[in-house]
Amino acid sequence: TAVDYAWQIADILTAVHEKNIIHRDLKPQNLIVDGEGRLHLMDFGTAKLTNKESNLTKAGAVLGTPRYMAPEQLEPKLGEIGEYTDLFPLGLMIYEMIAGRPAIQGDSFHSIFYELLFRQPSSLVDVNPAVPIALEQLCTRLQATKATDRPQLEMNCTILSKHCHSNFAYH
Predict the structure, then answer these.
(1) 43 is an active site residue
(2) Which end of the chain has fewer beta carbons closer than 10 Å to its terminal beta carbon, N or C?
(3) Taking the model in full, what pTM does it have?
(4) Catalytic option among 4, 25, 43, 86
(5) Taking Cα atoms as reference points, which of 67, 71, 91 lies closest to residue 142?
Protein backbone atom coordinates (compact mmCIF):
# COMPACT_ATOMS: atom_id res chain seq x y z
CA THR A 1 0.00 0.00 0.00
CA ALA A 2 1.00 3.64 -0.32
CA VAL A 3 1.39 4.08 3.43
CA ASP A 4 3.46 0.89 3.69
CA TYR A 5 5.76 2.17 0.95
CA ALA A 6 6.01 5.54 2.73
CA TRP A 7 6.94 3.75 5.95
CA GLN A 8 9.57 1.72 4.08
CA ILE A 9 11.04 4.91 2.59
CA ALA A 10 11.18 6.53 6.04
CA ASP A 11 12.86 3.39 7.40
CA ILE A 12 15.41 3.44 4.53
CA LEU A 13 16.13 7.12 5.20
CA THR A 14 16.68 6.34 8.88
CA ALA A 15 19.34 3.77 7.93
CA VAL A 16 20.95 6.12 5.38
CA HIS A 17 21.01 9.06 7.81
CA GLU A 18 22.49 6.84 10.57
CA LYS A 19 25.44 6.38 8.20
CA ASN A 20 25.76 10.21 7.96
CA ILE A 21 24.55 10.27 4.35
CA ILE A 22 22.07 12.75 2.86
CA HIS A 23 20.69 11.35 -0.41
CA ARG A 24 19.59 14.72 -1.93
CA ASP A 25 17.74 13.13 -4.88
CA LEU A 26 14.95 11.08 -3.33
CA LYS A 27 12.29 10.44 -5.98
CA PRO A 28 10.17 7.51 -7.20
CA GLN A 29 12.66 6.72 -10.00
CA ASN A 30 15.38 6.09 -7.38
CA LEU A 31 13.34 3.42 -5.59
CA ILE A 32 13.00 -0.16 -6.77
CA VAL A 33 10.63 -2.82 -5.44
CA ASP A 34 12.03 -6.32 -5.10
CA GLY A 35 10.06 -9.55 -5.60
CA GLU A 36 8.94 -9.52 -1.96
CA GLY A 37 7.53 -5.99 -2.11
CA ARG A 38 10.45 -4.35 -0.29
CA LEU A 39 11.76 -1.00 -1.48
CA HIS A 40 15.44 -0.27 -2.09
CA LEU A 41 16.98 3.18 -2.56
CA MET A 42 19.34 3.60 -5.50
CA ASP A 43 21.47 6.29 -7.16
CA PHE A 44 23.63 7.91 -4.52
CA GLY A 45 25.34 10.08 -7.16
CA THR A 46 24.32 13.36 -5.48
CA ALA A 47 24.62 12.04 -1.91
CA LYS A 48 26.56 13.99 0.69
CA LEU A 49 28.41 12.77 3.77
CA THR A 50 27.40 14.89 6.74
CA ASN A 51 30.41 14.15 8.91
CA LYS A 52 33.00 15.45 6.41
CA GLU A 53 33.76 18.63 4.61
CA SER A 54 33.23 17.93 0.95
CA ASN A 55 34.35 19.95 -2.03
CA LEU A 56 32.65 17.65 -4.52
CA THR A 57 29.91 20.20 -5.08
CA LYS A 58 30.40 23.92 -5.40
CA ALA A 59 28.56 26.32 -3.14
CA GLY A 60 25.33 27.34 -4.82
CA ALA A 61 25.22 24.28 -7.06
CA VAL A 62 21.69 22.95 -7.62
CA LEU A 63 21.60 19.15 -7.36
CA GLY A 64 18.64 16.83 -7.62
CA THR A 65 15.48 16.38 -9.64
CA PRO A 66 13.54 19.68 -9.70
CA ARG A 67 10.06 18.24 -8.99
CA TYR A 68 11.34 16.51 -5.83
CA MET A 69 13.91 19.03 -4.58
CA ALA A 70 13.71 20.46 -1.10
CA PRO A 71 13.41 24.27 -1.06
CA GLU A 72 16.75 24.64 0.76
CA GLN A 73 18.43 23.05 -2.25
CA LEU A 74 17.34 26.14 -4.18
CA GLU A 75 17.50 28.81 -1.48
CA PRO A 76 20.04 28.33 1.35
CA LYS A 77 18.20 30.89 3.54
CA LEU A 78 15.48 28.25 4.04
CA GLY A 79 17.87 25.89 5.84
CA GLU A 80 21.06 23.91 5.52
CA ILE A 81 21.26 20.74 3.48
CA GLY A 82 20.75 17.94 5.99
CA GLU A 83 18.46 15.11 6.99
CA TYR A 84 15.43 17.39 6.58
CA THR A 85 16.37 17.75 2.90
CA ASP A 86 15.44 14.11 2.30
CA LEU A 87 12.15 14.48 4.19
CA PHE A 88 10.63 17.05 1.83
CA PRO A 89 10.46 14.65 -1.15
CA LEU A 90 9.09 11.97 1.19
CA GLY A 91 6.11 14.28 1.81
CA LEU A 92 5.73 14.88 -1.92
CA MET A 93 5.80 11.14 -2.64
CA ILE A 94 3.27 10.34 0.10
CA TYR A 95 0.97 12.92 -1.44
CA GLU A 96 1.54 11.52 -4.93
CA MET A 97 0.98 7.89 -3.93
CA ILE A 98 -2.30 8.66 -2.15
CA ALA A 99 -3.62 11.45 -4.40
CA GLY A 100 -2.59 9.78 -7.65
CA ARG A 101 -0.98 12.98 -8.94
CA PRO A 102 2.18 14.98 -8.20
CA ALA A 103 2.06 17.62 -5.47
CA ILE A 104 4.22 19.90 -7.66
CA GLN A 105 2.36 20.61 -10.90
CA GLY A 106 4.76 22.96 -12.72
CA ASP A 107 5.71 22.19 -16.31
CA SER A 108 8.98 24.14 -16.53
CA PHE A 109 12.03 24.60 -14.29
CA HIS A 110 10.90 28.11 -13.40
CA SER A 111 7.34 27.16 -12.50
CA ILE A 112 8.53 24.13 -10.50
CA PHE A 113 11.08 26.24 -8.61
CA TYR A 114 8.43 28.88 -7.90
CA GLU A 115 6.06 26.23 -6.52
CA LEU A 116 8.80 24.71 -4.37
CA LEU A 117 9.63 28.07 -2.82
CA PHE A 118 6.24 29.76 -2.50
CA ARG A 119 3.31 27.32 -2.58
CA GLN A 120 1.32 26.09 0.39
CA PRO A 121 1.71 22.33 0.99
CA SER A 122 -0.81 20.21 -0.83
CA SER A 123 -3.61 18.73 1.30
CA LEU A 124 -4.43 15.03 1.09
CA VAL A 125 -7.83 15.55 2.71
CA ASP A 126 -8.85 17.82 -0.18
CA VAL A 127 -8.23 14.87 -2.53
CA ASN A 128 -9.43 12.08 -0.25
CA PRO A 129 -11.50 12.98 2.85
CA ALA A 130 -10.95 9.45 4.24
CA VAL A 131 -7.23 10.11 4.88
CA PRO A 132 -6.55 9.94 8.64
CA ILE A 133 -5.85 13.39 10.10
CA ALA A 134 -2.46 12.35 11.54
CA LEU A 135 -1.34 11.21 8.08
CA GLU A 136 -2.64 14.45 6.52
CA GLN A 137 -0.75 16.52 9.10
CA LEU A 138 2.44 14.51 8.61
CA CYS A 139 2.29 14.87 4.83
CA THR A 140 1.67 18.62 5.13
CA ARG A 141 4.49 19.14 7.64
CA LEU A 142 6.92 17.14 5.50
CA GLN A 143 6.22 19.61 2.68
CA ALA A 144 7.12 22.64 4.82
CA THR A 145 9.20 25.19 2.92
CA LYS A 146 11.52 25.83 5.87
CA ALA A 147 13.66 22.76 6.62
CA THR A 148 13.41 22.99 10.42
CA ASP A 149 9.59 23.03 10.23
CA ARG A 150 9.62 19.41 9.01
CA PRO A 151 9.11 16.66 11.61
CA GLN A 152 11.94 14.41 12.71
CA LEU A 153 12.26 11.07 10.96
CA GLU A 154 11.41 9.03 14.07
CA MET A 155 8.00 10.72 14.28
CA ASN A 156 7.40 9.98 10.60
CA CYS A 157 8.06 6.28 11.12
CA THR A 158 5.76 6.14 14.16
CA ILE A 159 2.83 7.83 12.40
CA LEU A 160 3.29 5.84 9.20
CA SER A 161 3.58 2.56 11.08
CA LYS A 162 0.31 3.29 12.87
CA HIS A 163 -1.48 3.84 9.54
CA CYS A 164 0.15 1.05 7.49
CA HIS A 165 -2.94 -1.09 7.71
CA SER A 166 -5.60 1.62 7.68
CA ASN A 167 -8.78 0.99 5.76
CA PHE A 168 -9.01 4.33 3.95
CA ALA A 169 -9.12 4.13 0.16
CA TYR A 170 -6.24 5.55 -1.90
CA HIS A 171 -4.76 5.23 -5.37
Answers:
(1) no
(2) C
(3) 0.86
(4) 25
(5) 91
